[in-house]
Amino acid sequence: MQKLTPATFKQLQDEAEGGSMQAQYALGAAYLNGNGVKRNPEAGTKWLRKAAESGHIAAQCDLGVMYQKGIGVECDYQETLKWYRLAADQGDALAQHNLGSVHAKGFKVKGLGFFNPTAFAFARATQDFVVAYKWFSLAAANGHAASMKDRAIIKLRMTAAQISKAEGLIKEFQEAHSS
């Protein structure tokens, strides 16, 4: 990313305030990364959210990452899924892969250790190989290379009935999203 000068930052800010979702996304990234302005995760999140709410796919995926990892926001399982799904439903391979990863591993709350019984139980409760297989398959079909490997790994831990169910979910998704 090119270093923003004060003049280009001001222009970007004006465009973002004018409603340009691409400018909102870029301004959010500038605040999050400290590019042309002092690093400010709260302002970065605000502008990223505006872009995401306007339908910016990369902003939606990035918000999913932020909620998953607790970057600029509190870790939140439902918000993680919400933002990843919005991008994934529009064909974003990275969001599809990230959904697969969340479901394959279970959701891990930042700051709670592996040996914390509540954290471990929540991670296990949110683990779903059938759904993970679906998202890894869709991501692989959209060109995300690591998804093929990850799908093969979880497939080894699945029953034939689970694989069949996942294949049905893939077909349903493709039918619902074909135009």
Tell me briefly what this model is.
With 179 residues, this protein is mainly α. It is built from ten helices and no strands. The mean pLDDT is 89.
Question: Could you walk me through the main structural features you see in this protein, from its secondary elements to its overall organization?
Answer:
The chain has 179 residues and is mainly alpha-helical. It has a domain at 88-176. It is built from 10 helices and no strands. The chain has helices at residues 6-17, 21-33, 41-53, 57-69, 77-88, 93-105, 117-125, 129-141, 145-155, 160-176.
Share of helix among residues? over 70%
The mean pLDDT is 89
Quickly count the helices.
10
Question: What's the gyration radius in Å?
Answer: 18 Å
Number of strands: 0
Give me the secondary-structure category: mainly alpha
The termini sit apart by: 35 Å
User: What fraction of the residues are assigned to beta strands by DSSP?
Assistant: under 5%
Question: What is the helix/strand order?
Answer: HHHHHHHHHH
Major β-sheet profile: none
- Uncertain runs: none
Outline, from the CA principal axes? elongated
Key features of this structure:
179 residues, mainly alpha, 10 helices
List the helices and strands and how they pair.
Elements: H1 6-17, H2 21-33, H3 41-53, H4 57-69, H5 77-88, H6 93-105, H7 117-125, H8 129-141, H9 145-155, H10 160-176
